[in-house]
Specification:
Length: 233
């Protein structure tokens, strides 16, 4: 990626961080109301929203997990941009990572509310700081979480060979390499020949066992000095 592309992406990430912090700060008064099972309200970009206590907690999960994913994205961007290894094909990864983290945190929140709280429990029984911390960590480590969940479900629900992804002709996995032909088709015993490098080049020393004797040679078939590996005519 050229310098203009890096600068543009960096400015966009700075703007995204400012927007996320703004959303979190303006949402917090409604979170305080949700701690007492009261409805709240929030004003985002001159748009006033009335929120129930449960809706406030759900928005808290989404925003905080987005902040966690944002930390992951910015650290990755700074590392690759600083090492001059940032390529344009990864732009969509940076864009979608925030949404992946928020979606995953939402699923975790639903699992916790459904698994550890009864249907009659209200928002006052939910520790908002614990939910916020968990959401942020899920967003921050969304890549590791998705990889581990995939490993668990692939192990628990493994399909037989030839089924599932193996049965699809358009799989994204690279197929196993197969040798279809070679040139020449047959090479005699003891013959190993390679094309010399343009402009000359050092030969590669090899050790070829001949019976009980190790024969030191290079790729062009000349004897080599065992100590130095230098070829001898």
């Amino acid at each position: 990626m050229n310098g203009i592309g890096k600068l543009t992406l960096g400015v966009l990430l700075l703007g995204l961080g400012a927007v996320l912090l703004y959303l979190l700060l303006t949402l917090w008064p409604a979170v305080e109301a949700a701690k007492e099972s009261r409805d709240g309200s929030v004003t985002w970009f001159w748009q006033h929203l009335d929120l129930s206590a449960d809706a406030t907690l759900l928005l808290l999960v989404i925003v905080v997990s987005a902040v966690g994913s944002y930390v992951h994205v910015t650290v990755s961007f700074s590392d690759f941009a600083g090492n001059r290894q940032l390529v344009s094909s990864w732009v969509w990864w940076y864009i979608l990572r925030v949404f992946v983290g928020s979606s995953l945190a939402t699923l975790f929140y639903f699992a916790i509310r459904g698994g550890f709280f009864s249907n009659t429990s209200d928002s006052a029984q939910v520790n908002v700081y614990g939910i916020a911390a968990l959401s942020g960590l899920v967003g921050l480590f969304s890549k590791q979480a998705t990889d581990k969940l995939r490993e668990i479900f692939d192990t628990a629900f493994r399909t037989k060979d030839g089924y599932g992804d193996d049965a699809r002709s358009d799989s994204i996995a690279n197929p196993a390499p197969t040798l279809e032909s070679s040139e020449p088709a047959r090479v005699g015993h003891g013959i190993l020949q390679v094309d010399p490098e343009p402009g000359g080049g050092t030969s590669v020393p090899l050790v070829v066992p001949v019976g009980a004797v190790e024969r030191h040679t290079d790729v062009n078939g000349r004897d080599a000095d065992p100590a130095s590996g230098a070829a001898r005519s």
